[in-house]
Amino acid sequence: MSSSYQGDGYGAVSMRVQGDRLSGTATGGPCGFEPDTEVLSGEFQDNVLVGQVLLCQVGPQCEPRVQQPALVVFNPEDGAMTALFRLKDGCRSPVLKNDSFLLLRPLSHEAAATESVRPASAVATSDGAGSSAAQVAAGLGRQGEAPPLEEGQRQLASGNAAVAQRHFELALEKDPRNASAVVGLGASQLALNDVARAVRTLEANRGLPRADVQLWLAYAYHREGNRVRAREALRKAFEMGWTPAGRSSEAAPEQALREDIKDLESLMQQQRARKRGPVRAPAGAGNTTP
């Protein structure tokens, strides 16, 4: 990987690798970097560089340059390096696509394609959650090919919760009231065992008119160990029209809440029967009913 890279908006970056440590320097470009400014640094954990990226920013009350912590993923298939960022509200960066995505491509594709890459294994992401480097590379390498919500759902279904989480966050930046993105983000956080954050995500959106938001909130409370709140949220999901239907996307909450689901189904059936009132036997020969 010791070679030159080109970013769509970043400009040329010269990479140098020593052992597991990488350093990238740049000059000029949209940020107007001084000669040989270090813009990328960190250490590799398999195919993922855990480090920092220097970004320039524009916007009121935004630092002109900021060091952002980053997970930079190296894709062994084409040598590309990708990363997702979340800037502060009101800040923009001319070197990021949609103010969130960085893509660096090797200028010497053949050299990058023949580079030896070690097998991928589980690594720790910046959120503290375990994820496969190969899965992360595959997911981020598809950035831009599909809308964030669609790609997040695809990644979550494939088991790439760390990648899915970032796509759902991007979807919510565009539409904070998107119930499908809220459910996806909460499900991703739960898959990453970030239960406290999942509870906050789903609680903040419990007013959305979608039964599955309540279902996943019930599951989050269950994972938190709060059964009273879990049953309350599950009851609301039922009242909003949710019923267990064996959907693959809801397998985790259905399995975890199966006893409460059975109890609430039985209770609601009894309530419906009481509302209908007693059934009278038909009058006729041999019937004592007057």
Instruction: Please indicate the count of domains.
Output: 2
Number of strands: 10
CATH architecture of the largest domain: Alpha Horseshoe
Low-confidence stretches: 109-144, 286-290
Determine the CATH topology of the largest domain. Answer: Serine Threonine Protein Phosphatase 5, Tetratricopeptide repeat
Radius of gyration: 26 Å
Query: What is the CATH superfamily classification of the largest domain?
Result: Tetratricopeptide repeat domain
> What is the molecular shape?
elongated
What distinguishing features does this structure have?
290 residues, alpha+beta, Serine Threonine Protein Phosphatase 5, Tetratricopeptide repeat, 8-stranded antiparallel beta barrel, 10 helices, 10 strands
